[in-house]
Amino acid sequence: MDADIITIENAHSNEKLLLVFHEGVNYGAGIVPGVYDIHSLIIPSAKEIVNRTIEMLTTNILWFNPNFVFKTCEHTGVKCALKIMVLAAELLRTELAHAKKEKV
């Protein structure tokens, strides 16, 4: 596949498609996992997003980005969801930095 980045929305499938990448499919470009269903009333915590994501993907190919469906949702829910996604990205960067320091 000749793409710079692919987005995989599979919140309803329990991340089955992402397991393919975890099991050794060699894909060198970025992957954007759908970290939760925007239409759900339950927004996972930043830690849940990080834990579930790093179980499935190699972190050097991982991106977080908001779903464009956000523009059709209520403002308060979108703002909360975006804050959690930003926090999840910050947590993941911190964890990776600590892991890198421990290897040195």
From TrEMBL:
Question: Keywords, A to Z?
Answer: Metal-binding, Zinc
GO terms (molecular function) for this protein are: metal ion binding
The region annotated as signal peptide is none
Q: Where is the Cobalamin-independent methionine synthase MetE C-terminal/archaeal domain?
A: 1-90
User: Per its UniProt record, what InterPro entries does this chain match?
Assistant: Met_Synth_C/arc (IPR002629), UROD/MetE-like_sf (IPR038071)
Pfam families recorded for this chain?
Meth_synt_2 (PF01717)
The cofactors it requires, by name, are:
Zn(2+)
Note the SUPFAM superfamilies from the entry.
UROD/MetE-like
Name of the molecule in the record: Cobalamin-independent methionine synthase MetE C-terminal/archaeal domain-containing protein
Show the taxonomic lineage.
Answer: Eukaryota, Viridiplantae, Streptophyta, Embryophyta, Tracheophyta
